[in-house]
Write a structure and sequence with these properties.
The chain is mainly β and 202 residues long. The protein is built from four helices and twelve strands; from the N terminus they run E-H-E-E-H-E-E-H-E-E-E-E-E-E-E-H. Strands 1-2-3-4-5-6-7-8-9-10-11-12 form a twelve-stranded antiparallel β-barrel.
Length: 202
């Protein structure tokens, strides 16, 4: 499978990551993502509490380098449309931005909110499945990202062994299939966190 953000984040085997939300009062919110086996930090996500901007997120690698800049498209037309768009931009070494994916969030009206959340890959270099959607309900930590053939490429689940100590909404697992760009998947999870009033919002 071709990379969305970078081949560096495509593993030859399935990987389990652990997502830990950061409290607003301590670190400005957002979350960190660690490898379930090594406990090493893999990604960091900063939202409004750190950036000071609404509708904007930044995904960074373990060294703090920017990987994705994610913005929600605004405007009157967007507010009245059936879907609200989030756009993910990769950043190269020179700092230039390139649109790599778009997530369409259903409008909050009773009619439109039942529509599925869909993600489209915008990179011309990407030749595999270009359309994905969310199945399940993220706030319950029970959802999957599926491709256009119905295959699960990533799955969010509660981390059962810590459920009795830490609320499941604050710590959960993210299982990503082999060959899937992990940075892309975490970018999608960052948007879902924001949509459902998570740690990335102010």
């Amino acid at each position: 499978m071709a990379a969305v953000v970078s081949k560096v984040f495509c593993s030859n085997s399935e990987i389990v990551l652990v997502v830990r939300r950061r409290p607003h009062v301590v670190n400005g919110g957002g979350f960190i993502v660690t490898n379930n086996c090594t406990q090493n930090v893999v990604f960091k996500v900063d939202g409004c509490g750190v950036l000071g901007k609404k509708d904007e997120l930044i995904l960074r690698d373990s060294d703090g380098h920017d990987l994705l800049l994610i913005r929600k498209k605004g405007g009157v037309i967007e507010a009245l449309s059936m879907q609200r768009k989030w756009r993910g931009y990769s950043k190269d070494f020179e700092g230039s931005e390139k649109l790599v994916f778009c997530l369409k969030e259903p409008n909050n009206s009773c009619f439109f909110k039942k529509m599925p959340i869909k993600i489209s890959i915008e990179s011309n270099d990407y030749k595999d499945h270009k359309i994905f959607q969310i199945a399940g309900y993220f706030p319950d930590r029970a959802c999957s990202i599926i491709d256009s053939s119905g295959n699960v490429v990533a799955k969010v689940g509660a981390r059962k062994e810590v459920q009795q100590v830490i609320p499941s909404k604050d710590v959960y697992t993210l299982t990503i299939k082999a060959g899937i760009d992990q940075a892309f998947v975490v970018g999608v999870i960052a948007i879902l966190d924001y949509i459902y009033d998570g740690s990335t919002r102010c």
